[in-house]
């Protein structure tokens, strides 16, 4: 068995996470050529994988395990990385974070041809998983270790079907024909004659000879493998097809898996707990898991917060406005988080205006919706001037009464789920406490647009003509550029050559810079390490909050324009949006930002559009399928994102666009490529978009 069950399902003959981690340590310490390339982590560019990498790096650091962290953006880059890993003679442990679960890793196409010393650990929250990696045996299969969350225990029917199709002979195979030829009618007739002769004989010797021959024939007949009928084979194939084609969904976060490992190792602290909370919050705010699944994991972290932290101060218990109790206070507290976008760091009006939940209920893209928003605030007793002030500078009595007045008046406007259980963390006297949702927004913004696109951010005090008549400034990548300029003592007088240099991370990891010939790869790697450093740097994290605000302004601006101009077309049950012009076109050519826009549109239109069943859908349940495409002028391609939204707020539908994209590509021969690990994101040649969308919306023969 090559998948690791969670600790509560483990037994003496079924090892779990701790045993796998112990094997990594043993392999590292036994290896004669130990180096940073002996243990390598390949990390997907999302917040959950980033947090898992930081947590695992901390554990490795405590055990003196040298390792490397390499960001990998998608399947194409993973293939290139595979060719490079073949040349690493001292590599014995490869860890894939939020990638690889759908790939047939034991095959020669991936890691089947690698040295037998290599073990590949897959910690991936995306589903479905490739059954060859989960249940496969043999020399290659045993080297692929899937860190499962318990979901594989529910795949027993799929496992039986996979084993039957993998190990049972084909109905018309040579093996079956050979077995049939061994028992031809002539031999059967001879056997019957021999039995008659034995029955008439009065001696026991002759009978014993005949009995032995007959026993051998009978055993040979009994040892024949049960040949599966064609109907059984088709039934098993249909079972596997249903499993693979039902759409993509997500299980336990990768950071949650590492936190369970740290719990078993008895190394849990507030830092690891906070990173696990960020991974869970990221899954929830990006609609990867439903509210029901979020509440299940939240209850676990709620108990952990109570165990590792002092009781919350009574002063902040009513409005969840906690303050650090001493200069080194890094406590984590449970809170009820309002669905207002970064409201503690913005002003109240903008925080509500840029909330996707408020947008869906009030329709803020119309003048009537904005009037309803100001009317709600006025009915609560908040003047427009008060709501335009930064939230930290608002009157204390208004902040104390905010939640109570929202509970009283918001339901009149259909706002009945304005809060959800979450967490916040103190940072001593260096900063105000930061909520998990705000931290996730800041880190996501760094991953997407820290570099690679020009972004203007609003500086504090610039509203209403302040700070040189309200001018903003261009985002310059936070503290990274200043930190490099400050290290003047390491730069020779003549400057440095533009060659790529290895960079040491905070944990002693070494990684190379991106290929200088590929600017896109350069800024992607730079964004990854900027976000990675910000995970434990509150100053850098707070500096990223204005960037996240600017990103949400662009999303609201573009989304409101799409709805207001009625740019949403309906093609056979699909809602299709194509962006070809606009001031933010270069911004939305980034898959991560375009995915955010698609989710915002799905939330905004959930209560205003009727649910449909897409032509390519396997399920008959109605949903809100949305396809958003944006022109990348520089590359001459379109970035296409598919979202399958549920009709009820808080629910999640399986995303069936991954296979639908592949099916449409094959039928129309469009020139495409998958640049990310998300199969519902596709890059397609500019000239092939129209025929691709038409083919996609027609659906295949189901």
Automatic annotation (TrEMBL):
Compartment(s) of residence: Nucleus
Residue ranges of the region described as Disordered? 166-235, 474-521
Keyword set includes Iron = no
Organism of origin: Ceriporiopsis subvermispora (strain B) (White-rot fungus)
What the entry lists under Pfam families is as follows:
CDC45
Q: Does the keyword Acetylation apply?
A: no
Q: What is this protein called?
A: CDC45-like protein
Which Gene Ontology MF annotations are present?
chromatin binding; DNA replication origin binding; single-stranded DNA binding
Q: What is the lineage of its organism?
A: Eukaryota, Fungi, Dikarya, Basidiomycota, Agaricomycotina
């Amino acid at each position: 068995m090559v998948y690791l069950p969670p600790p509560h399902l483990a037994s003496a003959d079924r090892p779990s996470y701790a045993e796998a981690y112990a094997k990594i340590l043993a392999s590292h310490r036994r290896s004669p050529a130990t180096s940073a390339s002996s243990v390598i982590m390949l990390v997907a560019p999302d917040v959950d994988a980033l947090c898992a990498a930081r947590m695992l790096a901390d554990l490795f650091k405590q055990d003196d395990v040298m390792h490397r962290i390499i960001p990998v953006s998608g399947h194409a880059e993973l293939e290139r990385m595979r060719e490079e890993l073949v040349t690493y003679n001292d590599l014995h442990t490869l860890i894939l974070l939020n990638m690889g679960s759908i790939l047939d890793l034991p095959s020669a196409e991936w890691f089947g041809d690698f040295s037998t010393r290599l073990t590949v650990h897959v910690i991936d929250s995306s589903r479905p998983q490739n059954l060859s990696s989960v249940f496969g045996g043999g020399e290659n299969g045993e080297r692929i270790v899937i860190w499962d969350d318990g979901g594989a225990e529910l795949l027993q029917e799929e496992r039986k079907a996979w084993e039957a199709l993998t190990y049972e002979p084909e109905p018309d195979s040579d093996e079956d024909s050979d077995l049939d030829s061994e028992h031809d009618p002539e031999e059967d007739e001879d056997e019957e004659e021999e039995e008659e002769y034995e029955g008439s004989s009065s001696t026991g010797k002759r009978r014993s000879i005949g009995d032995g021959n007959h026993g051998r024939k009978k055993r040979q007949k009994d040892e024949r493998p049960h040949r599966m009928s064609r109907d059984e084979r088709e039934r098993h194939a249909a079972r596997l097809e249903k499993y693979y084609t039902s759409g993509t969904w997500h299980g336990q976060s990768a950071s949650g898996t590492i936190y369970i490992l740290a719990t078993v190792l008895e190394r849990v602290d507030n830092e690891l707990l906070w990173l696990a909370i960020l991974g869970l919050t990221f899954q929830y705010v990006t609609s990867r898991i439903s509210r029901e699944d979020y509440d299940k994991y939240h209850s676990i972290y709620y108990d952990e917060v109570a165990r590792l932290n002092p009781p919350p101060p009574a002063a902040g218990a009513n409005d969840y406005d906690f303050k650090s109790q001493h200069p080194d206070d890094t406590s984590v507290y449970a809170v009820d988080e309002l669905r207002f976008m970064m409201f503690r760091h913005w002003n109240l009006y903008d925080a509500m205006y840029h909330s996707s939940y408020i947008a869906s209920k009030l329709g803020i893209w119309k003048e009537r919706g904005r009037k309803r928003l100001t009317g709600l605030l006025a009915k609560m007793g908040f003047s427009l001037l008060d709501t335009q002030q930064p939230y930290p500078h608002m009157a204390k009595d208004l902040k104390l009464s905010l939640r109570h007045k929202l509970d009283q008046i918001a339901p009149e406007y259909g706002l009945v789920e304005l809060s959800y259980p979450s967490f916040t963390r103190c940072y001593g006297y260096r900063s105000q406490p930061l909520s998990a949702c705000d931290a996730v927004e800041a880190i996501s913004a760094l991953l997407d647009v820290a570099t690679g696109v020009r972004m203007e951010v609003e500086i504090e005090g610039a509203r209403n003509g302040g700070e040189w008549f309200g001018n903003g400034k261009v985002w310059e990548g936070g503290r990274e550029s200043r930190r490099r300029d400050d290290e003047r003592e390491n730069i020779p007088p003549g400057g440095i050559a533009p060659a790529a240099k290895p960079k040491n991370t905070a944990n002693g990891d070494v990684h190379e810079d991106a290929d200088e010939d590929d600017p896109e790869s350069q800024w992607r790697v730079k964004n990854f390490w900027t976000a990675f450093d910000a995970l434990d740097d509150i100053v850098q994290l707070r500096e990223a909050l204005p960037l996240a605000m600017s990103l949400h302004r662009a999303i609201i601006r573009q989304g409101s324009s799409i709805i207001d101009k009625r740019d949403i077309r309906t093609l056979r049950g699909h809602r299709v949006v194509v962006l070809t012009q606009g001031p933010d076109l270069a911004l939305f050519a980034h898959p991560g930002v375009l995915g955010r826009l698609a989710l915002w549109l799905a939330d905004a239109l959930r209560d205003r559009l009727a649910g449909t069943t897409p032509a390519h859908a396997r399920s008959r349940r109605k949903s809100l399928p949305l396809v958003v495409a944006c022109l990348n002028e520089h590359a001459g391609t379109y970035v296409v994102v598919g979202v399958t939204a549920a009709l009820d707020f808080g629910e999640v539908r399986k995303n069936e666009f991954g296979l639908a994209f592949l099916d449409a590509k094959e039928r129309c021969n469009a020139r495409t490529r998958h640049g990310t690990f998300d199969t519902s994101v596709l890059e397609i040649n500019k000239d092939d978009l129209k025929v691709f969308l038409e083919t996609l919306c027609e659906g295949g023969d189901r």
